[in-house]
Amino acid sequence: MNPLLIPTDLVTRLRTARRVAVLTGAGISAESGVPTFREAQTGLWARYNPEELATPEAFRRNPRLVWEWYAWRQERVRQAEPNAGHYALVEMERRIAEVALITQNVDGLHRRAGSQQVVELHGNLFRVKCFAEDRPVENWPESANIPPRCPHCGSLLRPDVVWFGESLAASALRVAEQAAVTAEIFFSIGTSALVYPAANLPFTALAAGATVVEINPQPTPLSPQVTFSLNGPAGVILPRLVEQVWGDAVGISECRL
Ligand code: APR
């Protein structure tokens, strides 16, 4: 199916929807130059071993390696800009009564684009917390220590992201599940639908009778179940969708599409 051809039935449903939930993954930031995780060759996990960089055990073994790797990822994201896909979701949030934007991304690009209602399921690259006390830390004294130390207890500071084998924040997961249960339309955008519990959310929405839309150039384990499957880049499809639902009404330039 031509990805730029948006099903008219989807356009109609979205035009009348009042509650929409959107789950995003690394794919929505791909067009901003931020690498995804599982893409062959280019994906982070194709180049780096997650066991050595994204687990509490890896951090205990070599905290400096892990800290510097996240510092490198921060730099990549600082050089990136939100893309048309991010901005189209901002427009959706402006046009629909209730939009819950649930992201697995730790890059903060949704907020940088202007999205307000963002649930960061896997944390944020630009936040830090104490490894021992698990509490956020905003300021710490300059020192030669890498990673720096917690100003309260002297333990190591770590990136405030969810590592493999760790649980998600209960409050974030609760909000995400509630949004999936009550959504009329649920979008799954740029995620391989392989990492749980986030990958459960589209199925929760399906079970609750929602219209489920997947936007991804590649098929995923979710694809056979969805109502609409739009196989193309989010940065092309989302602006097109917004244009077809509200294009005439809003005047596209506002969305920086
Ligand atoms: N538009 C839409 N989707 C895209 C695009 C694009 N331009 N480019 C790639 N994709 C799709 C890929 O086809 C793939 O299915 O995005 C998906 C990215 O999948 P992953 O790399 O597995 O990323 P994600 O699903 O977000 O990973 C989930 O795993 O590594 C952990 O904690 C990390 O949050 C991450 C979680």
What does this entry look like structurally?
With 257 residues, this protein is α/β, with parallel strands linked by helices. It is 38% helix and 16% strand. It has eleven helices and eight strands. The strands form two sheets. The chain has a six-stranded parallel beta sheet, sandwiched between helices. α7 (84-95) crosses α11 and α9 (170-182) runs parallel beside α10. The two termini are 22 Å apart. Residues 251-257 have low confidence and may be disordered. Bound molecules: adenosine-5-diphosphoribose.
What are the main properties of this structure?
alpha/beta, 6-stranded parallel beta sheet, binds adenosine-5-diphosphoribose, 11 helices, 38% helix, 8 strands, 16% strand
- Proportion of β residues? 15-25%
Task: Please count the helical segments.
Answer: 11
E-strand count? 8
The unique ligands bound to this protein are: adenosine-5-diphosphoribose
N- to C-terminal distance? 22 Å
Radius of gyration: 19 Å
Quaternary structure: single chain
Major β-sheet, in short? 6 strands, parallel
Quote the average pLDDT: 93
Summarize the structure.
By secondary structure, this protein is α/β, with parallel strands linked by helices.
Task: Give a topology summary.
Elements: H1 8-16, E1 19-24, H2 27-30, H3 44-47, H4 50-53, H5 56-61, H6 63-78, H7 84-95, E2 98-103, H8 109-113, E3 118-120, E4 123-130, E5 157-161, H9 170-182, E6 185-189, H10 201-207, E7 211-215, E8 228-230, H11 234-250
Parallel strand pairs: 1-2, 1-6, 2-3, 6-7, 7-8
Antiparallel strand pairs: 4-5
Adenosine-5-diphosphoribose binds next to α2 and α11.
